[in-house]
Automatic annotation (TrEMBL):
Transmembrane segments: 107-127, 139-159, 207-226, 238-256, 314-337
Signal peptide segment: 1-16
Membrane topology: Multi-pass membrane protein
GO MF term list: metal ion binding; signaling receptor activity
Location relative to the cell: Membrane
Similarity section: Belongs to the ADIPOR family.
Record carries keyword Nucleotidyltransferase: no
Pfam families recorded: HlyIII
Source superkingdom: Eukaryota
Sequence positions that bind Zn(2+): H125, H275, H279
Record keywords, A-Z: Membrane, Metal-binding, Signal, Transmembrane, Transmembrane helix, Zinc
Record InterPro entries: AdipoR/HlyIII-related
Protein name as annotated: Membrane progestin receptor gamma
Amino acid sequence: MCVSLTFLIIQLLLEGWEKLTRMAPVGLSGPTYKVHQVPEHFHEHFIISGYRHPKSTPFQCILSVFDATNETLNFWTHFLPSWYFLWILRDLWDTLDFKHDSYTWPLLAYMFVCIIFPLASATAHTFNTMSDLARHICFFMDYGALSIFSLGVAIAYRAYCFPSDLRNTWFGHHYTDMALINSVICTIASCQTRFMPPSTLRKVMRLGAFAWPYCYDSIPILYRLFLCNPHECLLQSQFIHARQFVFALLAAFLYASHLPERLNPGRFDIIGHSHQLFHVCSILGTMDQMQAILYDMKARRAELSESSWEYSSVWSTIGVILSVMAVNSLIIAFFSVKLKLIFKKFK
Ligand SMILES: *[C@@H]1O[C@H](CO)[C@@H](O)[C@H](O)[C@H]1NC(C)=O
């Protein structure tokens, strides 16, 4: 009895899923399209349906986040986490003295970038079907936000997580300066790739622009995981720092492999394609990273603040982030104008 009831329920759920993924393609924002109905540069590998109109209005774009399109969950899987991180910051605000205690400022900068990067990505996923130009600009925004994120991570790592062996080395003294340079160069490089024809070089450059800052930021953490001194090996954060890498590798694997939709094109158009799973993994990784930073921050307070605290001005934390944000905005504006001129020439 119980078994057959369970089977019945499973069958109903599967049928529901079947219907949901093959639902009538007209939603709040208008019809959705099959891959061959939209221009080629909008095509996504192994995604057959659920495409929005390539010249949607802003209002249609907003409505579409409540529809079943190929981007709906790309939006929610970053929009909700952004609010979640804001909620965490609110919580921390009650227990930490962000206003007066300079020990908390690098954390504040980090929390800020954690809120900004998923929000920028969610916005980009919403409005990228307004036009060709909008699509490029949305990608620029996404790249800019990721570059800011890598800088925020570097500031927090340098402040709370740095292995004591490396703190007074050349690398230790210039770690954040180089992260800043990475951040700006990577915004420029990844934007530039949108002007290149599809090629291996383009792929390598685009991937490198994301992977390099991440790898660079991770050097002190890898050092701590593999070469920690006896005292630092015992820090509570070690395991969470390590687990964060698992999520990052998984995210990279999903991004590059286009799994699972590669195995069954069309089946995962709306729910479960690799880009959504990639979002989820990157957020889980960020949650681990945040937890590990919080652990380190708490556990190492005495040790860090007694040997002259380096972040006693707002400028060195939030100020740096805001300045690079301004620089990135200028870079994006420059590339957008350049694109617009190119588009004009071809009309
Ligand atoms: C979804 O469809 C849009 C066009 O409406 C396309 O630009 C985008 O690449 C697709 N994304 C995914 C993840 O399938």
